[in-house]
Task: structure prediction
Amino acid sequence: MSAEVESDVAPALPRGAAAFERILLKLSGEALLGRQQYGIDLARVESLSREIQAIQGMGVQTALVLGAGNIYRGMEAAAEGMDRATADYAGMLATVLNCLALQDGLEQLGVHTRVLSAITVSEVAEPYIRRRAIRHLEKRRVVIFAGGTGNPFFTTDTAAALRALEIGAEAILMGKNGVDGVYDGDPDEKPDAAFLPELTHREALERGLRVMDTTALSLCMDNGLPIYVFGLDDERNIERVVRGERIGTIISTPRRTE
Result:
């Protein structure tokens, strides 16, 4: 009997219905910039908080991982001469700042949240414990993972893949600034770069597409975890992806069933 290919891609559903029960939303630090060159734009935080409130209201269990590019980039600091491990720990602390800002934005809207950190900052966040994170999600709290993986030499992309797998998320949703999905080249350097609406994890790895780092992509590929890459320019895009609309790029590995 020939093997059938079964897709992990969520189907589009009627308006108001969610295509997922549990997701992990990965946002870069730049997503908090708004119109600023660096730091945190509170108006942007409020806008993102309202989007997250909307999907939480649809019954979707929501976890988040934030980058820290708006404040600090470990690799850039390492390139300038700082010890790489030290630079990465500074980057982890910067993610805590972003997570606290988003937590405040959500709670001002009445959304219950918990920040769980992979590094110890007990005055402002709970320590990351997998079962505790899952319990918070089951209680309909938004869970924000801070501190990356807690280890240097790993990016927040890897933290997103790792946490998504640990909590049993059905997909990673990657909101991007200034780009609406994945292209076969950098649109800034290659004006004729072609938009890719769908590809596999292996294709992304083999073609060297800068979707997320290779460690994170490999984790997702090995565990069949789909990644939805989309732009944040439209304020409703997160909700549209959660409803199953086909926007941006879907990265998945079809499962073969006998």
